[in-house]
Every structure is written in C-alpha cells, then in structure tokens.
Design brief:
CATH architecture: 3-Layer(aba) Sandwich
Helix content: 25-40%
Order of helices and strands: EEHHEEEHHHEHEHEHEH
Strand content: 15-25%
Domain Phospholipase/carboxylesterase/thioesterase: 17-227
Organism: Thalassospira marina
Strand order of the largest sheet: 1-3-2-6-7-8-9
Largest sheet: 7 strands, mixed
CATH topology: Rossmann fold
Family: Belongs to the AB hydrolase superfamily. AB hydrolase 2 family.
Radius of gyration: 16 Å
CATH superfamily: Alpha/Beta hydrolase fold, catalytic domain
InterPro entries: AB_hydrolase_fold (IPR029058), LYPA1-2/EST-like (IPR050565), PLipase/COase/thioEstase (IPR003140)
Number of helices: 9
Distance between the termini: 37 Å
Keywords: Hydrolase
C-alpha cells in the first residue's frame, strides 16, 4: 500500500519550548481540525507540549469533506448494542482496516519526534472514536514505548491477535459516555478487560448520560493523565 504523508493543524508549546508531544487522532468523517480545538485547553496543563492533529489518509466514504482511517461500511452499532456478547467478533471484522493503516501513523510520529529531537517516551496519543481504534491498534504494536494513550469513545479491535503482537505496553486511560449511540459503551469496557488481561496499566472512566462526544470532565481526566505521563 502506498503511504500518504499525513498533514494537519498544529498547536505549538505555549512555553516556547517543546519537551513533549501529543498527537490527536480524529474520528470517522472528521479531520484534524476537529480535535485541534482541544489543544488550548490541554495546554493549560501541558505548557511544554506541542500538539499535532493529522488528517486521516483517506477521503470519507460517507462524507464529501471528511476523512477516514479505514472503512466502516460494514459497521452496525445497533447490532452491537443488541448483541453485546458478539461484539468482539463484530469488531474483529474492522481490525484489518486498522492494521493496514497504522504505518501512516508510525511515519507521522517518527517525523514529528525527529523534528523536535525527542524520544518516543515523550509522546502521547489522544484518540476519539475511530481515532481511538487506531491508537489502540498502533501503540501496543509500536517498536518503541510511548508515554501513554487516551481513548475517547472508541474500541480495541483485533483482540484475538493482541497477545502475540504486543511489543510495548504504554499506560492507557479510556473515557466513554454511557449514552453513546455510535460506539456502544461496552466497547471500552471490553477494551479495558482485554488490555488488563495482557498486562497493561489501564483505567476506565464512564461519563453518565454522555452521547458520542467529549465533555469537560472527560477532558479534565485526559489532561491529568497526560500531565502525569509527560511530566
């Protein structure tokens, strides 16, 4: 597969000195502009952190202006909600799409780290929805251990192959709204269980009544996690 060089909006370290990096991975049908708005809020806790929010490599099949990391043509959240016990099998069908696109993220991260002269342990990923799926697909299989992963409203794909593919175990915090109609909250619960069983330091935070999105409390949880891991 040919590789597209990812590009997207940036937010520089407010202190003027970049000592760490956060890469924001947007959801399906959005683009990097969707999450870069989190940077000014997170920067209040992370003044020495530069933020990057790359656009996913593919035009979205369902939106003329958005981007996608991989196809969701076969995704059916209603089926997942009605049949929670089949969720791992249903998510497995999406895993190949995520797997095929992690190289885009690796290349982007390597370029950003080189640009700032930083090691991987000075970089964290923050994903939302499909961006979380990509972060959780990439980080455990990356040859270097990053500082951590924040996953909003997402899922862990390909749990059946995870144990044999782990090359690093960054800490993970998962945040999910209990009223999410797009990615059922059970997906993050399954991710927490699978990561925990495989030796990851993983925490889970459920936001009561929240639909598919990020609220102030969830953002505060993410900021505290990132400050701890990047301090």
């Amino acid at each position: 597969m040919s590789q597209t060089r990812l590009e997207g909006p940036e937010f520089p370290a407010t202190s003027g000195t970049t000592k760490s990096i956060v890469v924001l991975l947007h959801g399906y049908g959005a683009d990097g502009a969707d999450l870069i708005g989190l940077a000014p809020e997170l920067a209040k806790f992370l003044p020495d952190t530069a933020f990057y929010s790359p656009n996913a490599p593919h035009p979205c099949e369902m939106s003329p202006f958005g981007r996608q990391w991989f196809s969701l043509a076969s995704y059916d959240p209603e089926m997942l909600r009605r049949n929670a016990e089949t969720m791992p099998t249903a998510l497995k069908a999406l895993a190949q799409g995520a797997r095929e696109n992690t190289t885009h993220i690796e290349n982007f991260i390597e370029n950003v780290l080189d640009q700032h002269g930083l090691e991987a342990n000075r970089l964290a990923l923050v994903g939302f929805s499909q961006g979380t799926m990509m972060a959780l697909q990439f980080a455990p299989r990356y040859k270097k251990q990053i500082a951590g992963v924040v996953g909003f409203s997402g899922a862990l794909l390909g749990t059946d192959t995870l144990a044999g593919e782990i090359t690093s175990r960054p800490p993970v915090t998962l945040i999910h709204g209990s009223a999410d109609p797009v990615v059922p909250v059970q997906a993050s619960k399954l991710a927490q269980a699978a990561l925990g069983e495989n030796g990851f330091d993983v925490s889970y935070h459920e936001r009561p009544g929240l639909p598919h999105g990020i609220d102030g409390e969830g953002l505060a949880i993410a900021a505290n996690f990132l400050r701890e891991k990047l301090s």
